[in-house]
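Ticket 4471: requesting a sanity check on a complex prediction with hypoxanthine. Repro inputs:
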Amino acid sequence: MTTEFLLPTAELHLHIEGTLEPELILELAARNGIALPHPTLADLRAQYEFTDLQHFLDLYYANMAVLVTEADFADMTRAYLLRAQASGVRHAEIMFDPQAHLGRGIPLSTAVRGISSALASSQDEFGISTALIAAFLRDQSEESALAVLEELLAMGAPIIGIGLDSAEVGNPPSKFIRLFERARAAGLRRVAHAGEEGPPSHVWDTLDLLGVERIDHGIRSVEDSMLVRRLAADQVPLTVCPLSNVRLRAVDTLAAHPLPQMLASGLNVCINSDDPAYFGGYMGENFQSLVAEFGLDVDALELLAGNSIRSSFAPEARKAQLLAELAAWRAARV
Ligand code: HPA
Ligand SMILES: [Zn+2]
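Returned structure tokens:
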């Protein structure tokens, strides 16, 4: 990667389980004595052509079988931080899927301790400040999500907020009103996936019924001009993931991605890698693809990176530090 792309950014939409690279899947399977349905790199890699979100999710959940011990979760997290560092990421808000691990009989404490132990040293080791977000699976019940949230709170898990992910179609935001009320009462930040495969009405309801502070994806918002006006007026952060959208066929091609239209409409968008081990790259590859496809100039890159920093849940002092770094990046390019 050229230094041109070491744009200092915040990554706000990242599933840590989606950073599990095929090589690490095989390594952890061997370490834990797990027989994989696709036991070679070539076999495994051949599974990565997705037709839609559910097709990806089936592989994403199946591959998690190799995550057994705290060390597995810590190794995965450190591997992400190393690649993120090489991509210019300076702050990362990382989602994990507690229910996906509990459902396989892995105690919550194993996942939480493994991930958070790696995050605890990320600033010193990688220069990346971090925060952890517990994402709930929208194809499971609200009761399940509430019970897991209570368990996370009771154990003092170092989470900054909650998110909502997995299969969007058929699982509307209205299913999770009590979950988001509970999170708000507990002082947690709130984000949710919406408008990835689901309709613009999901984005409206995610804002109005769940009271989220950011929308993950939100690309289908462009189908509703009233919604675009609302998002622009309130400067609601939208964590867009271009390579993810292409690989999950949410858009036909990168050229057809609505990012240019979203920027032209004054939306508060930032760039993210979502599940980089599955979708063809980390932050750097996402930016590189956008520059190649749309010819984004230095001003556009600065705006996108600035949006990510301003939309983060980092402390104000850290945001100021990162915005100063971004200004220095810009100043070196006049
Ligand atoms: O891109 C995604 N969309 C919804 N759920 C997910 N869980 C992991 N990645 C995703
Ligand atoms: Zn996502």
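Notes from triage: The chain has one domain: 3-331. Leaving this open until the requester confirms.
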